[in-house]
Amino acid sequence: MDHCMVDIETLDTRPSGVILSIGAVKFDFPDLVDLEDTFYTNISIASSLKAGCTVEGRTIQWWFKQSKEAQAALFEPKPKGFQEALSAFRHWYGERQLLTWSHGSNFDLTLIDAAYNKLGQQPPWKYRDVRDTRTLFWLAPGYEQAVERAQVREMQFVRHNALDDAKRQVQWVQTAMRLLKEA
Description:
Elements lengths: L2 E8 L8 E9 L10 E5 L2 H6 L6 H8 L3 H6 L8 H12 L5 E4 L5 H11 L11 E3 H7 L3 H8 L11 H21 L1
Parallel strand pairs: 1-4, 4-5
Antiparallel strand pairs: 1-2, 2-3
């Protein structure tokens, strides 16, 4: 696998925010069908606060408006400690350099980067390997219409479940890459 899609759920939108869960999928181009090499962990709020992470009231209020399935996913499997969860993610990610994607250039990977910095560590990816889905989608001609036709957004995923969001984002990338190749 040459690529990794990462998504997180948080209790704050600032880089210092508590990360509730990390979901990730390794994948290749052009075959994006295999989404089996996955990672998912929940992180203990208490251990994150102890590490110096922050909580934002508006984000907590936002979570109360999300589906019961999304809320339940934050506690199953049982949350790991802050350091344990980040170590598990590093182990799953491995030593191989991967192009590491997120849905937006300044949120998911920025918060994970800040979390590793709290531990005195670098994230498992290299800064030059970071990729942004939103820029890709903007470049792909007819992307919005193609996604609507393919009904990618209607597939059976739980919105705001980090792993489900990462899988859905890989499918969106597949659509955008196909459009760019056809252009």
